[in-house]
Amino acid sequence: MSAQVIVHRDKTTLAAAVAARLVTTITDVQAEHGEAHVVLTGGSMGNALVEALVDSPAAPAVAWELVHLWWGDERYVERESADRNATQAREAGLGRMAALGLDPANVHELPATDDAEGDDIAAAAERYAAELARVAAGSARRGPHGVDVPAFDVVMLGVGPDAHVASLFPGKATLDVTDRTVVPETDSPKPPPARLSLTMPALCTADEVWLLVAGEDKAEAVAAATGGADVHEAPAAGVRGRRRTLWLVDEAAAGDLP
Ligand SMILES: O=C(O)[C@H](O)[C@@H](O)[C@H](O)[C@H](O)COP(=O)(O)O
Asked: Which of 78, 82, 97, 228 is most buried as measured by Cβ atoms within 10 A of its Cβ?
């Protein structure tokens, strides 16, 4: 199934539209299943989405106590570091979502360097994989194809100017990992070098994958990835939702599209 591109006027409109889409999608999932699993992204788009979501008048329509939040990747640094996607999301307003019913135990942050694994980034990756497997095993909502993750309803991903997604970068061996759900990256071309990332097969278990992209500096990456570039050159080209793949972009990011 081919990906669909939806263009919004600018970044603010895009964030508001994605927040509205997320509320509606989670509400639909909950009408059928109760529990929902959403994978958040970092980056400025991820933060803009959290801000828009918390302020959305429709946010209370979601039964947040039944929502699990995960991340597609994380910088492997100390837990309170401002570099962490999770820290930035908290600052963008995720912390305030407890008031809406979100259970902090269902907010699944990736490990940090001040956790028990310390410098052992491979062990940290294994622990997050184990957490994904544990939650899947304890739930009626398991991922498909025998991949040991919960049923991700939506995976959201920012896209870098080099077309990277999560912490899967062009030319890296991590792109070809298929036997695990979480991998370490110790030599990221974008600082900081140490990161943890969901793998391509784990991301692609999602019912819906939404690529969220704003800004002129992303136009080339959007055109390449939607135009059928090789996944090793444009990792964003390789992520597909089982039911739907949406590129949700602003006009500037859509600038190089035919
Ligand atoms: O880990 C990182 O270095 C960033 O989180 C990165 O992966 C980001 O998600 C994309 O580069 C899109 O970033 P923007 O949404 O800020 O454009």
From this structure: 97
